[in-house]
From TrEMBL:
Alphabetical list of Pfam families matching this protein: Peptidase_S28
UniProt keyword list: Glycoprotein, Hydrolase, Protease, Signal
SUPFAM superfamilies: alpha/beta-Hydrolases
This protein's record includes keyword Transmembrane helix: no
Protein name: Extracelular serine carboxypeptidase
Entry's Gene Ontology BP terms: proteolysis
Family (UniProt): Belongs to the peptidase S28 family.
Length: 520
């Protein structure tokens, strides 16, 4: 889905490079300011003795980092903003107005963004074959953070600021949040502390819980309509009603998409999923108007529109003969929204192509060109999982035809076995689990999550996790009503923020100040 490719995934909205939005404010995301950019010669392979990386290399690559000196005063800490699954440059807003700005200002700190290996301008190789991707693992990535803290140079500052003599405090949101937690846990002797925000620290194969907050907190009449339409569709699928399914596809204007799963994902575009989707969704709601998209609310007001023209509401009855005469409430509204606001994103008009909604062309996945999608999918396939899937029981916002095989097939097409490296048949979830799963803990490692984040159930405050208690050494905070790492955002005026965010920021400042007070 190249044209529509908008890898939000565990990403947060900053990765969504090409998607169009009804909300012009989102375009403000393209940061205008710039920060000095440097590179460090980073070893490609931090584990010369591990068989996982045979035959090994002693080569280095240029890893990019960006520095904000504006708040620094001698004696201040270094805040390392973990790049995660996007380019370093797309993280500039955190230096300008977000959490790093807030913490730098509060403590005379230096702000640094380290770009993740295999993203942005920090690729070790010119292409991403399966063999070349072998060094894209969690352990190599977090080893970069420790190495960087020990070797980084800052030309704008006199003297050395390396760890552990200077307190380095990591911050990461989303995948970078998990990397922050794993870094502090593994390299606590080097890295003084860290805040993991909405970090999916527990890997899961199928991540149907992605839909749970939408199911729970979305406008209930909209949600119920989608649930009922999905149930009816799945009934037709289970009965192999090929004619009816063809009619259903045609109602959405998607009759040219042969694969029922591609069709199911296309009509779920406004709702989203953990991998790729073309429009803004629940995950892109935000308290900060500069980063918020209201697309999800618009989708729902369209689906529940009571004033639709008669020829639209008539569509609700088009398939009633297949469902014992029962109408498909709001099917007309739903289909109209997809036709008006989703299908036009496919500018080529070739709906079944990989630039639009088709995913079944193996050659597309096998393209070894470096890219954010290819790197992110690789991590999903080998370690993280989080494949899109309908819940095993209960109501669903997506058709049950979407199962883990749908994603695993992309992995298999994308990363055929190389000479040295091959992907596992299914993601190796034990790698994440080795950091402690829901028991993960380290001194001065803080966890902050949002109660209505689609990623909550892979995070520290998951509904599956034990009850949490906080302390200065092991602080934790679940922000009521917050989405995906909403504490990352700021507006240069904490007092003007919504109360739960304001108090999260004040909590983060206090937490870090207490740590720094104890630094020797
Ligand atoms: C690799 O093994 C050699 C020989 O046992 C040892 O000297 C070296 O320290 C090890 N390197 C790392 C990075 O563990
Ligand atoms: C890397 O350098 C070490 C020390 O010079 C050497 O023993 C090792 O064989 C080298 N590894 C590779 C893959 O070239
Ligand atoms: C990668 O591309 C650059 C720029 O085109 C080139 O200089 C370099 O030799 C290439 N490296 C490899 C390993 O092919
Ligand atoms: C670094 O130190 C030198 C000599 O003490 C001084 O002239 C210079 O202004 C300092 N530079 C910065 C960036 O502090
Ligand atoms: C479903 O129906 C099609 C066309 O009627 C038929 O070719 C196919 O074998 C059926 N599949 C199953 C699983 O019954
Ligand atoms: C339908 O969605 C569009 C696009 O987001 C929005 O502009 C419009 O206001 C919505 N219409 C209704 C009736 O909610
Ligand atoms: C309903 O009628 C309008 C105006 O004639 C037309 O533009 C639209 O395509 C029709 N919609 C459906 C679902 O038939
Ligand atoms: C549904 O069935 C009835 C009775 O057989 C028929 O009159 C009607 O045209 C059918 N409706 C549709 C949409 O096929
Ligand atoms: C849809 O795309 C797939 C993958 O490229 C291709 O195999 C299939 O023939 C296409 N089907 C149609 C109906 O275009
Ligand atoms: C997934 O694919 C595997 C291997 O192709 C197959 O054995 C399994 O039955 C499939 N599972 C589902 C739910 O389709
Ligand atoms: C977490 O710790 C509890 C209590 O010590 C233990 O019962 C549980 O098995 C641990 N879970 C994991 C995933 O390690």
């Amino acid at each position: 889905m190249r044209l529509l490719s908008c890898l939000l995934a565990v990403a947060g909205i900053w990765n969504c490079a090409t998607a169009k939005s009804t909300n012009a404010a989102l375009n403000k995301r393209q940061a205008t300011s710039s920060f000095p950019a440097y590179t460090i010669d980073m070893p490609i392979d931090h584990f010369p003795n591990s068989s996982r990386y045979a035959p090994h290399t002693n080569a280095t690559f240029k890893q990019h980092y960006y520095v904000d000196y504006s708040y620094y005063k001698p004696g201040g800490p270094v805040y390392l903003y973990i790049g995660g699954e996007t380019s370093g440059r797309s993280r500039f807003p955190a230096l300008e107005t977000g959490i790093i700005q807030i913490l730098m200002e509060a403590t005379n700190g230096l702000g640094v963004i380290l770009e993740n290996r295999y993203y942005g301008q920090s690729y070790p190789f010119n292409t991403s074959t399966t063999d070349e991707l072998v060094y894209l693992t969690t352990e190599q990535t977090i080893a970069d953070n420790a190495y960087f803290a020990q070797h980084a140079t800052f030309p704008g500052i006199n003297g050395s600021l390396t760890a552990p003599d200077t307190p380095w405090i990591l911050y990461g949101g989303s995948l970078a949040g998990a990397q922050t937690a794993f870094s502090v846990k593994t390299y606590g002797d080097i890295l003084y502390g860290g805040i993991a925000s909405s970090g999916p620290v527990v890997a899961k194969l199928a991540y149907s819980e992605w839909y749970a907050p939408i199911q729970k907190f979305g406008p209930s009449d909209c949600i119920a309509s989608i649930n009922a339409i999905v149930d009816k569709m799945d009934l037709l699928v289970s009965q192999n009603q090929t004619q009816a399914i063809a009619e259903l596809k045609a109602i959405f204007g998607l009759e040219s998409i042969p694969d029922i799963r591609d069709f199911a994902v296309a009509i779920a575009a406004p709702i989203g999923n953990p991998m790729f989707y073309p429009t803004y969704t629940w995950q892109e709601l935000n308290w900060d108007p500069n980063y918020a998209s209201d697309d999800f609310w618009y989708f729902c007001t369209n689906v529940t529109n009571l004033d639709a023209p008669e020829n639209v509401t008539a569509v609700d009855y088009a398939l009633a003969n297949y469902t014992n005469g029962e109408a498909w409430a709001n099917l007309g509204n739903y289909a109209r929204y997809i036709q008006e606001f989703v299908i036009p994103l496919c500018t080529s008009g070739d709906l079944n192509s990989t630039s639009c909604f088709g995913t079944q062309d193996p050659a597309y996945w096998a393209d070894t060109t470096n890219g954010v999608l290819r790197s992110y999918l690789y991590s999903s396939c080998i370690e993280q999982g989080a494949y899109q899937a309908a819940p095993a029981y209960g109501p669903s916002l997506i058709s049950r035809v979407i199962d883990v095989n749908y994603t695993q097939q992309w992995c298999n097409w994308a990363y055929p076995a190389g000479k040295y490296n091959s992907i596992p048949p299914t993601p190796d979830l034990s790698i994440y689990a080795s950091y402690g799963a829901y028991n993960i803990s380290a001194d001065r490692l803080a966890f902050i999550d949002g109660s209505s984040d689609v990623w909550l159930d892979m995070c520290y405050h998951s509904n599956d996790a034990p009850e949490r208690t906080s302390s200065d050494l092991h602080p934790e905070l679940l922000i009521e009503g917050s989405g995906h790492h909403w504490d990352s955002y700021g507006i240069l005026d904490i007092d003007a923020e919504p109360q739960f965010i304001r108090n999260a920021h004040l909590w983060e400042i206090r937490t870090v100040k207490k740590w720094l007070r104890d630094f020797q």
